[in-house]
Every structure is written in C-alpha cells, then in structure tokens.
C-alpha cells in the first residue's frame, strides 16, 4: 500500500503526433480519460487552463467559470480532485516570444489575462495551486531581451497573480531549454531565487520534473531534495529521460532505475505528501503504442514507483550508517544494486 496520492494530466494520454509526424492513435474524450485514470489508481488531475475550459480565448470571464463548474461536476462523478491549473502560454500567437517576458506589451497583457483566468478556474475546481511552466520564457536570440529585465517581468507577473487572489499558490516548473534556446528560470535554484523576490515567498514554490533536471545536467533527487530543504516542493512531475536530448517524458524509471529509486527515497524520507502534495506523473506514450495500450505507460510508471517505494522501505539504514562510518562506499553501492536487482 503506497503512502502517496498520485496525479496525472489528460495530455499524458495523447494521439502520438510530434514535430516530425502525424497522429498515430485516435483522440480519447476527456471524460473517458478521467474514468480510466481513476480505475488505474490516480487520485487527482492536473489541468492546463484550456484542458479545463476549451476555447478559453473565445469566452467571457463568467462563461469560463461556468465551464469550470461543469468540469468540477465531472471530477466529483469519478471521485477525483483537481491538483492544479496551469496557463498554457506557449500555444498561442500572442506568446511566440514568451508570455510574461514578451517584448510586446499587448502579449504580456494577454499572458496575465490567461493567468488570472487560470486562477478563476482553479477556484471553481477547488484547488489553490497554479503551475507555471515557463516554456517560451527566455530567448531564441540572445540579444533580443535583457535577462535582467526578463527576470523582473517574471517576478512582477507572479506578484500580480498573488495580489489577484490572496489564497492561491504559484508553483514554477523550471526547464533549462526547449522550446526556447535559453530559459530565464531553468533550475530549482532559479525558482528559489525568484520566490524570495516576490511579495509573498511562502506562496511561491517549485514543481520538479525529472526530465528537466536531467536536461540541465543535474540529478533529479538532488533537485527534489534542494526544494524540500526550503519547504518549496509544491509538487513533482516524475518521468525519465535518455540523456541530454529533447524532453522525452519516458515512463518513470525505465532509463535510470537507480536514479528513480533515489527520487522515491528522498520523497519517502522527507514525508512528502504529508501536507496534501501529490506525486504527479508527466509521461507520454511512445508513438508506436497502439490504441489498446494508450494507458500502459501510466500503469507501468505507477507500478515501478510503488515497487521502488517498497525497496525504499526495506532499505537498511543501519548498514548504510556502518558503511558511511567506515567509508565503505563501494559496499554501500553494491548493497543498493543488490536491493534493486532483488539479490539482497
């Protein structure tokens, strides 16, 4: 029995289209996804603003709230919660040069409109968490904007969100690159610095995604631990990654099992989830996956996480202490490998 609650986003079950090819599977209606997510074992759903309210740009503020209320009824029907709402600021003509950091004032105003509508949707869905994946917040051309100005724009935008609603929390999901060349807020350390500069730092934290840490050449467990040390880990996006390539969102643990083990270990050791946090997955099916297997990557990720959780709970801390005292790190490493390979 896992000590954690799990969340997933509807985008994690998709039709398989990418930059180099068309869709390979049929689209699945949202309600069908929600029903299946609950059956698999998820407790909450992650939403972009336009996952929750399609055609959001074409609706009035009251119409947006009404659509969100309909979604809340659907979540209640399947016994699911909303974990967070994230403004999708990277898929609109207004945001080709970023949202909060766009060099055009009208684009920055659009980004703030979407951010505030995300807060409205979150309130209707019963969550206080707003996630900012700063996808295009950086530069494609290094000389196009000052990193000082861009960072100040981000802080100003977060402050405006905090002022708009005195109860919401803002959770930054850092990524070093892709789809832009250079991110302004690329690691959990950047998130901590931005948080400290806002008007209410206790309401600003981070969402660590495994793949994003790997893309920055960092260890995901250490990034998780860094945020936990400051009580700033508001959620996680667990997945896996084959090296410093594009963001792959592979099934959790399939590439780096020991690395996955240590992510689970740091969460278990620090009572993550004791304040209502979810273990979120952000994993995508391979393009070769069939319609019938559209959810298999989610099932596999949960299975791997829970098996690693069992391994963590069997971890021999007395033996670890002995190895540390004698500096027998070879012995400790082999113990971990035996544990993972079932040979202990």
Please summarize what this structure is:
Helix content is 44%, strand content 12%. With 344 residues, the chain is α/β, with parallel strands linked by helices. The mean pLDDT is 97.
Describe this structure in words.
The protein has 344 residues and is an alpha/beta fold. It folds into 2 domains: 6-313, TIM Barrel; 315-344, no CATH class. 44% of the residues lie in helices and 12% in strands. Helix 8 (220-229) packs parallel to helix 9 and helix 9 (257-269) packs across helix 10.
First and last CA, distance: 22 Å
Assign the CATH architecture of the largest domain. Answer: Alpha-Beta Barrel
- Overall structural class, as computed from helix and strand content, comes to alpha/beta
Percent helix, as a range, is 40-55%
CATH topology grouping of the largest domain: TIM Barrel
Keywords:
344 residues, 12 helices, 10 strands
List the helices and strands and how they pair.
Layout: E1 6-8, H1 30-40, E2 44-48, H2 49-52, H3 61-77, E3 81-86, H4 105-125, E4 129-133, E5 138-139, H5 147-164, E6 169-173, E7 182-183, H6 188-197, E8 204-209, H7 210-215, H8 220-229, E9 233-238, H9 257-269, E10 279-281, H10 296-313, H11 317-326, H12 329-341
Parallel strand pairs: 1-2, 1-10, 2-3, 4-6, 6-8, 8-9, 9-10
Antiparallel strand pairs: 5-7
Helix pairs in contact: 3-4, 4-5, 8-9, 9-10
């Amino acid at each position: 029995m896992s000590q954690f609650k799990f969340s997933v986003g509807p985008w994690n079950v998709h039709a398989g289209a990418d930059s180099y090819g068309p869709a390979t599977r049929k689209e699945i209606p949202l309600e069908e996804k929600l029903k299946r997510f609950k059956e698999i074992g998820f407790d909450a759903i992650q939403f972009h603003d336009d996952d929750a309210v399609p055609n959001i740009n074409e609706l009035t503020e009251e119409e947006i709230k009404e659509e969100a209320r309909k979604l809340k009824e659907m979540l209640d029907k399947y016994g699911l919660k909303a974990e967070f709402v994230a403004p999708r600021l990277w898929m609109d003509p207004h945001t080709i040069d970023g949202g909060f950091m766009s060099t055009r004032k009208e684009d920055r105003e659009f980004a703030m409109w979407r951010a505030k509508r995300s807060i409205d949707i979150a309130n209707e869905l019963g969550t206080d968490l707003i996630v900012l994946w700063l996808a295009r917040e950086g530069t494609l051309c290094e000389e196009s904007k000052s990193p000082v100005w861009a960072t100040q724009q981000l802080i100003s935008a977060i402050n405006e969100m905090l002022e708009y609603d005195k109860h919401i929390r803002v959770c930054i999901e850092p990524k070093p690159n892709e789809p832009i060349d250079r991110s302004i807020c690329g690691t959990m350390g950047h998130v901590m610095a931005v948080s400290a500069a806002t008007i209410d730092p206790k309401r600003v934290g981070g969402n660590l995604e495994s793949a994003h840490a790997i893309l920055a050449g960092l260890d995901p467990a250490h990034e998780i631990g860094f945020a936990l040390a400051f009580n700033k880990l508001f959620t996680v996006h667990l997945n896996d990654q084959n090296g410093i390539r594009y963001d792959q969102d592979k099934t959790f643990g399939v590439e780096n099992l020991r690395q996955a083990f240590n992510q689970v270990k740091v969460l278990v050791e620090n009572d993550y989830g004791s304040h209502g946090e979810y273990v979120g997955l952000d994993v995508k099916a391979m393009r070769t996956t069939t319609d019938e297997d559209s959810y298999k990557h989610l099932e596999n990720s949960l299975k791997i996480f829970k098996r690693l959780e069992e391994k963590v709970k069997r971890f021999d801390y007395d033996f670890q202490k002995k190895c540390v005292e004698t500096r027998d790190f070879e012995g400790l490493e082999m113990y971990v490998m035996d544990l993972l390979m079932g040979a202990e």
